[in-house]
């Protein structure tokens, strides 16, 4: 029994295998329709979600399995004070695999120690979001045909954006990567990620507040939302929320084969006028999330 809490638990070879499996599912969906027959996925979401929860559920249904769960803490016995450990110990008797989102960093790790079935971290606070990262890697590999020798600009809330933390950790293991870290001063990437990942692996990066200064060099532009729910102070959020709004005008200096990604939900940081640009990949990216989660469920349940 194996859980996925942090993308770093997966070797590059395992990530490449998951991507290959997802690509095979996309090409031959009928071959997978019965793979999880009689298996159940529990989605335990203590925090709001559209894509992650529903793509996990769609993934399990498309594998022939079934789904149970809750979409907010208030409709579970967490509202009565039940611990995460007790919840998953009980749910382990009802389901074969658990996907959990929780506002507290580390909660899915605690859950994985108490559960007797695999637990997948579906996002824990401002910490990690490994299945979003797998989604991002599948998208990049399909768009670019490779996961190496790329210049990636990550833009927006790099402090609280858990998807960015997991993406940098994962991409840093491929060769020839360069990063542009674009954020307001107050929302810079945490120092521990710069130190423990970028500096330790001698990865080339620049840190800037100015998106225009790096736009022309980027192969990937990964936009992120300013994470309102992680701010202590509404005034700070209001001051910073529109720091970067991507528009067709701002893309004029970008490469013709730039790929624009965003984990979604979008608030204001990409103008809807950009959606018609063939470089906009974020809705495709959300769809790929279903396929990579199908691949992950198959691997963790050892049916692929
Ligand atoms: N990208 C992502 O995690 O979206 P949701 O919050 O809608 O799941």
Outline the fold blueprint:
Elements: H1 12-27, E1 40-45, H2 51-62, E2 66-70, H3 84-91, E3 97-102, H4 107-114, E4 119-124, H5 130-144, E5 151-155, H6 162-171, E6 178-182, H7 191-199, E7 204-208, E8 220-223, H8 234-240, E9 259-261, H9 282-300
Parallel strand pairs: 1-2, 1-3, 3-4, 5-6, 5-8, 6-7, 8-9
Bound molecules: phosphoric acid mono(formamide)ester (CP).
Phosphoric acid mono(formamide)ester binds next to helix 2.
Question: What is the distance, rounded to the nearest whole angstrom, between the alpha carbons of the first and last residues?
Answer: 14 Å
Strand content: 5-15%
- The CATH homologous superfamily of the largest domain is called Aspartate/ornithine carbamoyltransferase
Share of helix, binned? 25-40%
What's the gyration radius in Å?
19 Å
Order of strands in the sheet with the most strands? 7-6-5-8-9
Unreliable sequence segments: none
As for the number of domains, it is 2
CATH architecture of the largest domain: 3-Layer(aba) Sandwich
The biggest beta sheet reads: 5 strands, parallel
What is the β-strand count?
9
What sequence of helices (H) and strands (E) makes up the elements? HEHEHEHEHEHEHEEHEH
Choose one word for the global shape: globular
